[in-house]
Amino acid sequence: MSSATPAPLPEDVADKAVAEAGGDADLQTGRPKRKTKSAAGNAARAVTSPWASIFAIFMALAWTTPTFGLFVTSFRKQEDIQTSGWWKSFASPFTLDNYKQVLQGAEGQPPLADFFVNSFVIVIPAVLLPLLLAALAAYAFAWIDFPFRSSLFVAVFALQIVPLQIALLPLVTMFQNMGVKSWPGGNYWSLWLAHSAFALPLAVYLLHNFMKEIPASLLEAARVDGAGHVRIFFQVLLPLIAPALASFGIFQFLWVWNDLLVAMTMLGGSPEKAPLTMILNTISGTLGNRWYLLSAAAFISIALPVAVFLSLQRYFVRGLLAGGTKG
What we know:
It is built from 16 helices and no strands. By secondary structure, the protein is an all-alpha fold. It has a domain at 114-325: MetI-like fold (Orthogonal Bundle).
């Protein structure tokens, strides 16, 4: 048996083999090295396997079936709801009376349409304020060199573990001492400041990571043209980070729109300033015997958030992927 070293492959044959194999070539023999399986590749293969697809379909059905049942219930009459389940509803006629009663006000309840304005008054500043402050802070952390920058960024990131709910009572006391109720806008400032303060850590983290992906040469070219920090931020970076701004804006919009606890705590249950979630909490009645109206009211309240999410979904995914994979 010969122990001679095999002749190396011709250069063009070796290059072709390496290209087909997708790996590096052995320096002595010219043969392609065997590719090693990475953890990311194994995870990708596991996610795309048939069993993973079956599990995803099962979870999607488990999540959507109750929602679909509630949607069907919102079109049923009260007597039909009390005598049969929603899966038997296709044999009986549907009605829009539940939606009419909710929108126009029925059985002593104010019209639900009146509370849309209150929800918008709460949501819009609570979304725009943290977006502006977080974008400025993220720019400073990403592109301005100052002492303890890394330590401060880690501290801001760590604040995400503090939930808003445990700080409600201290916040209420602080706002009362500040006399927020006498400010223009009244108790709405309590909601705006509370939601904005606890949204800033996540917003700064996402926007910072998104900004770090922007090439430094782009900012250097702007500086060569005489641009300062203000001009670079508003004219160069702000248009480029639109996906990250949209993704966090959607996240914050959904969070504030669906909030009930903070609104009840800060507003004190005042009906003239109550958002949709507070009226939904009382629309079924003290004994819960009008929950057929609650199903219709629930779908009216989620119509706008669903429309916003579906229209900006591509920005939401792009922003979260960019903000969650870079450090």
